[in-house]
Amino acid sequence: MLALVASSNEYFYFFTCPLDGEHTTYRVGLFFKGDTDHQPYDFRQVGLHHTAGYILGVDPQESAPRLPEDLPREIAEPYVCIATKATTLAKMWNNGYGWDLVVDHLKQLGYRVLCIDKERIQGLGHVWSQIPHDAEDFTGDRPLLERAAMLRHAEFFVGLSSGLSWLAWSAGTPVVMISGFTLPTNEFATPYRVINTHACHACWNAMDTEFDHKDYFWCPRHKGTEQAYECTRAITGQQVINVIERLRKDLQLTAPNEQKK
């Protein structure tokens, strides 16, 4: 049994584990600059969640955390959750029309569309974004269990390579993930991943680039050029809608307006 014995910063957690009557301390996290002294494999090569298993010397196969089964439902109508914000611009969907097209499509189907980002407006310097037009504002610094309950009862979730996608996965909610700056192996497996490999992509997982945590505008290959953030600018709203429709077909989800016909 592992026990958390110290608080973490953004990337590191400390655990102790009884071993033959003694305690061994593990430092579990992401180690940058090619550090393979503290991690057996560079996390860029094995994915965020697998790296912990390799560090601890246990089976690295992914398994979603178990959340309480009795998370309450607060909204009666069928709804979809979305999250559009992340800690850096590279993680966001930088197609200026994408989110509005997706929200419009979902509302035409009769779903309520709830934006559950922490911040309603986010940005830095000359670049700012707010929640999509016509999405319902459920933003705010809310407890994770409250967010998990909202996600548990959503028809599905549409988001980015960010914490709320991982929480949705943990809640057992189907996830449509939009990400161009990471490879699909970087996150948990979902058949509803949206990426455009015909544009520059996967800089986060490239061994010749190093993520700069302090640079909100990080784009290691094309910063300051017309190609900046093309990894997600090249993902169209229709691409995401097509994946949403494939998800609904696979899971046999009938939208409210389809039930009325």
Provide a descriptive summary of the structure in words.
Helices cover 24% and strands 18% of the residues. The protein has 261 residues and is of the alpha/beta class. The termini are far apart. A hairpin with a 2-residue loop joins β6 and β7.
List keywords for this structure.
single chain; 261 residues; alpha/beta; 6-stranded parallel beta sheet; 3-stranded antiparallel beta sheet; 11 strands; 24% helix; disordered N terminus
Radius of gyration: 19 Å
Sheet with the most strands? Answer: 6 strands, parallel
What do the pLDDT scores average to?
Answer: 88
Question: How many separate helices?
Answer: 8
Q: Rough shape?
A: globular
Which series of helices and strands comes N to C? EEEHHEHEEEEHEHEEHHH
What is the end-to-end distance?
Answer: 54 Å
Structural class designation: alpha/beta
- Strand portion, in percent? 15-25%
Overall number of strands:
11
Indicate the percent of residues in helices: 10-25%
Strand order of the largest sheet: 8-5-4-9-10-11
Q: Show unreliable segments.
A: 1-11
Write the layout of secondary structure elements.
Elements: E1 3-6, E2 12-19, E3 22-29, H1 43-46, H2 50-56, E4 79-82, H3 98-108, E5 112-115, E6 121-124, E7 127-130, E8 136-137, H4 144-152, E9 157-160, H5 163-170, E10 175-178, E11 193-194, H6 230-233, H7 237-251, H8 256-259
Parallel strand pairs: 4-5, 4-9, 5-8, 9-10, 10-11
Antiparallel strand pairs: 1-2, 2-3, 6-7
